[in-house]
Write a structure and sequence with these properties.
Blueprint lengths: L1 H18 L1 E4 L1 H11 L2 H20 L5 E10 L22 E14 L3 H67 L5 H36 L3 E7 L15 H22 L4 E12 L10 E11 L3 H4 L2 H67 L5 H36 L2
Parallel strand pairs: 1-4
Antiparallel strand pairs: 2-3, 3-5, 5-6
Helix pairs in contact: 2-4, 3-4, 4-5, 4-6, 4-9, 6-8, 8-9
């Protein structure tokens, strides 16, 4: 039984490993985040609530039916004094009275209130959805930076391992020479120390990549392989002066929403027309002189118009409130756009600067590579010792790592630029 348990665990980890992503691009991470991040569930819930809220508003156009019942006793009732005619007696109504009636009203014209209410609900839902998208977009920038951080660590590991392999080969040769009495033991120790330092750098870079992968997993909902390979993204952005981020779209939606709110508020001051009907049964019915239980019915048309808005300046007040809010939103929109344009220009300038630095890095690596080849020949000939060789080797390693750093910084600046302007 225990063997089956261990076999089950082994199979679980095997298939989990098989399902883990091994080759990852930045676009993959963006797509996974947009599909799997927990905030996506909020958007789904918001969209479902829109359907019900709009339906609730639309039902205000349906006939409204109300069932009313009343039983009462009153201290006095209307009555007619006895008339001076023999045999003519008019009975007074009872002081206890009963009514049961059904009132039905059908809206004909409401001044556009229901239409404005629908638009306001839809616009509010759009604003709420766009706010969630803005929150996701902010996480997207964090995801981008984490991806490039992991990519940089990955490149450093590759370069350092290549250098480590070279030093191990040199160490084997030196140890052989030490045994033959041609070289002194301290030369091997110099290489040993350098190998340990490079291994420490490899371990540090691997931890950084692992942390980056953990963050990517947390925001994409994907399981990533421990040795997952991150791909350096290619493709230049289209430099643009237009910002099209969810935050700026949110402000545009807010401006449209203020117009909807204005239309809803002023519609409350327009006349309302409705048909109404009432059917009932009670004592008395419509004939208040009758002391019998009778059915009755009333139909008609009702006009309701609150005129206070005309002489209290409601229209002007609502328009002023709307204009002030729009002015505030426009000022905020300009400020936000300017801030993002400054950031975009900074990233663009950084990318152009890195592009020039990479050109000089390539030239520096070419020179350092030649110097290492010369030092290797001299080392084999015994002209220089291992310390002299490691100086040149480390100089080349540093140049290669710097080029990798600058290349990834260049790609990161381009990717961040695209995110800032909303491409």
């Amino acid at each position: 039984m225990k063997n089956f348990k261990y076999l089950g665990l082994a199979l679980f980890f095997f298939f989990n490993k098989m399902n883990a992503q091994s080759i990852i691009s930045l676009d993959d991470c963006y797509r996974w985040q947009s599909e799997n991040h927990p905030l996506i569930a909020q958007i789904s819930a918001i969209n479902k609530s829109e359907k019900w809220q709009v339906q609730q508003v639309s039902r205000q156009n349906w006939p409204q039916a109300t069932l009313n019942g009343q039983a009462s006793w009153q201290s006095d009732v209307s009555h007619i004094p006895n008339l001076p005619f023999p045999g003519l007696v008019i009975e007074s109504p009872s002081k206890d009275q009963y009514k049961l009636n059904l009132d039905i009203a059908q809206n004909i014209y409401d001044g556009g209130m229901i239409k404005a209410s629908k638009k306001t609900v839809q616009q509010s839902i759009a604003l709420e959805t766009k706010q969630v998208e803005a929150n996701l977009y902010a996480i997207k920038e964090q995801l981008c930076r984490a991806y490039f951080g992991g990519l940089l660590a990955q490149e450093q590991v590759q370069i350092l391992k290549y250098s480590l392999a070279d030093l191990n080969l040199k160490k084997d040769k030196v140890e052989k020479l030490v045994k033959e009495g041609v070289a002194i033991a301290s030369q091997a120790l110099v290489l040993d120390a350098n190998i340990i330092e490079i291994q420490q750098q490899i371990d540090d870079a691997e931890i950084k990549k692992k942390n980056a992968l953990l963050f990517i997993e947390s925001v994409t909902g994907k399981t990533l392989a421990d040795d997952a390979k991150l791909i350096n993204p290619l493709g230049l952005p289209q430099y643009d002066k237009t910002i099209n981020r969810p935050e700026t779209q949110l402000l545009s939606l807010d401006m449209a929403n203020q117009e909807n709110i204005y239309q809803l508020n002023i519609s409350k001051n327009y006349p309302k027309v409705a048909l109404f009907g009432q059917v009932g049964y009670g004592r008395p019915g419509l004939n208040f002189l009758s002391n019998q239980f009778d059915p009755y019915a009333i139909v008609g048309m009702r006009l309701n118009w609150n005129l206070a808005g005309m002489y209290l300046g409601s229209f002007k007040r609502e328009r002023t409130i709307k204009d002030l809010k729009l002015e505030k939103i426009k000022a905020l929109s300009t400020s936000v756009n300017n801030a993002y344009m400054v950031r975009a220009d900074q990233e663009k300038n950084d990318a152009e600067r890195m592009k020039k630095v990479i050109e000089s890095d390539n030239e520096l690596i070419r020179i350092r590579t030649q110097l290492v080849k010369i030092a290797e020949t001299q080392f084999q000939q015994g002209i220089i010792n291992s310390n002299d060789y490691t100086i040149e080797s480390n100089a080349l390693l540093k140049a290669q790592i710097l080029r990798a750093v600058h290349d990834i910084q260049y790609q990161q600046s381009l990717a961040i630029y695209k995110l800032i302007i909303g491409q």
